[in-house]
UniProtKB/TrEMBL annotation:
Its cofactor is Mg(2+). Pfam families: Iso_dh (PF00180). Its EC number is 1.1.1.87. Gene3D superfamilies: Isopropylmalate Dehydrogenase. Residues 22-370 form the Isopropylmalate dehydrogenase-like domain. Pathway: Amino-acid biosynthesis; L-lysine biosynthesis via AAA pathway; L-alpha-aminoadipate from 2-oxoglutarate: step 4/5. PANTHER family: DECARBOXYLATING DEHYDROGENASES-ISOCITRATE, ISOPROPYLMALATE, TARTRATE (PTHR11835), HOMOISOCITRATE DEHYDROGENASE, MITOCHONDRIAL (PTHR11835:SF48). It catalyses: (2R,3S)-homoisocitrate + NAD(+) = 2-oxoadipate + CO2 + NADH. SUPFAM superfamilies: Isocitrate/Isopropylmalate dehydrogenase-like. GO terms for biological process: isocitrate metabolic process; lysine biosynthetic process; tricarboxylic acid cycle. It comes from Cyberlindnera jadinii (strain ATCC 18201 / CBS 1600 / BCRC 20928 / JCM 3617 / NBRC 0987 / NRRL Y-1542). Belongs to the isocitrate and isopropylmalate dehydrogenases family. This is homoisocitrate dehydrogenase. One of its GO terms (cellular component) is mitochondrion.
Length: 374
């Protein structure tokens, strides 16, 4: 379904010199505690073939941890990630829909504290299964409405008004535009080497709402365009296009095959990437990587799924693919490619699938099948 090797395989945004890799495991909430251990199983399964050794560090964060301790993201977790690990896997967060005093999302905080400014979400169908989809959504990860600067105003007539800051900076827009353009070039390099794809040439689509938000979204749009125009010696092969976000949603569902790399501010990118999961069957199969200049956290796109928590039927594929994506950004493309191949082989058959894909298999039955294929 998804093959990130067609996305970033030839790139090393950073590399790890040591062959013993320390990986932080942060299950978080709900089914995160069931799927993150599957990432560890997969890493252990590919280690010997590729001459890698892994050590794992269990770390705490999440709403359940907040309810127990009053802290959603312990300082110790952040410090260990920074100083003692090469990469990490993060499970899920049960963020409440109503305000809880003192609580804020730990994954949002982690992205900021570790400088993980890009959320890279490949969405790719498996050949012969479902609709043809082959896109990567690149979501700016540090600002927009997710700066969480809100206030409640008491009006003279006794009513209330809520206000939230939407922050878009030239710095962050340029940075996310660059990684989107670079990913488009990397995808084209893989196509030139014979990788299967729906696209003949690279396309980057800027998603915005600058027809209404002419200052904030206008700056996002203009900054990426200016960077693209100023670097034509590098990006001349890329077609830079635009979509207003509501039109983007419509066209993504009507004709997903036309999109290659999509770059968006934080909120739009969040909505688009979850929506795109419907094109390939389930949130349970869509991975992501939170990427900075020197660190990466793999993160399945699904939430904590309290309705199936503890039943042993959570789909582990999003976590397994996120594990492979983490490996790629760490510079280990070959074990990642093996993982993608094994997952695709599982998805092409109907025998062993979790209920979200219409099957009756358990989480561990799917993991065992993928490990067998490895």
């Amino acid at each position: 379904m998804l093959s990130a090797r067609n996305t970033i395989r030839s790139a090393r945004l950073y590399s790890t010199a040591s062959k013993t890799l320390r990986i932080g495991l942060i299950p978080g909430d709900g089914i995160g505690r069931e799927v993150i251990p599957t990432g560890r199983q997969i890493l252990e399964a590919v280690s010997s073939k590729h001459g890698l050794k892994f050590e794992f560090v269990e770390l705490q964060a999440g709403f359940e941890h907040f309810k127990k301790t009053g802290t959603a993201l312990p300082d110790e977790t952040v410090e260990i990630l920074k100083k003692e690990t090469d990469g990490a896997l993060f499970g899920a967060v049960s963020s409440p829909t109503t305000k809880v005093a003192g609580y804020s999302s730990p994954i949002v905080a982690l992205r900021k504290k570790l400088g993980l400014y890009a959320n890279v979400r490949p969405v790719k169908s498996v050949e012969g299964v479902g609709r043809p989809v082959d896109m990567v959504i690149v979501r700016e990860n540090t600002e927009d409405l997710y700066v969480k600067e809100e206030k409640l105003i008491e009006n003279p007539d006794g009513t209330k008004t809520a206000e939230a800051i939407k922050r878009i900076s030239e710095y962050a827009s340029k940075r996310i535009g660059k990684i989107a353009l670079d990913i488009a070039l990397q995808r084209q390099a893989q196509r030139d080497l014979g990788a299967a794809s729906l696209h003949k040439s690279p396309i980057v689509t800027i998603t915005h709402k600058s027809n209404v938000l002419s200052v904030s979204d206008g700056l996002f749009r203009e900054t990426i365009r200016n960077f693209y125009n100023a670097n034509q010696d590098k990006y001349s092969s890329i077609s830079l296009q635009e979509q207003i976000v509501d039109s983007m949603v419509y066209r993504m569902f009507r004709e997903p095959e036309i999109f290659d790399v999509v770059v968006a501010p934080n909120l739009y990118g969040d909505i688009l990437s979850d929506g795109a999961a419907a094109l390939v069957g389930s949130l349970g199969v869509v991975p992501s990587a939170n990427v900075g200049d020197d660190y990466v956290i793999g993160e399945p796109c699904h939430g904590s799924a309290p309705d199936i928590e503890g039943k042993g039927i959570a789909n582990p594929i999003a976590t397994i693919r996120s594990t492979a994506l983490m490996l790629e950004f760490m510079g280990h493309a070959e074990p990642a490619a093996d993982i993608y191949t094994a997952v695709d082989a599982n998805l092409k058959e109907d025998a062993i699938k979790t209920p979200d894909l219409g099957g009756k298999s358990s989480t561990q039955e799917v993991v065992a099948d993928i490990i067998r294929r490895l």
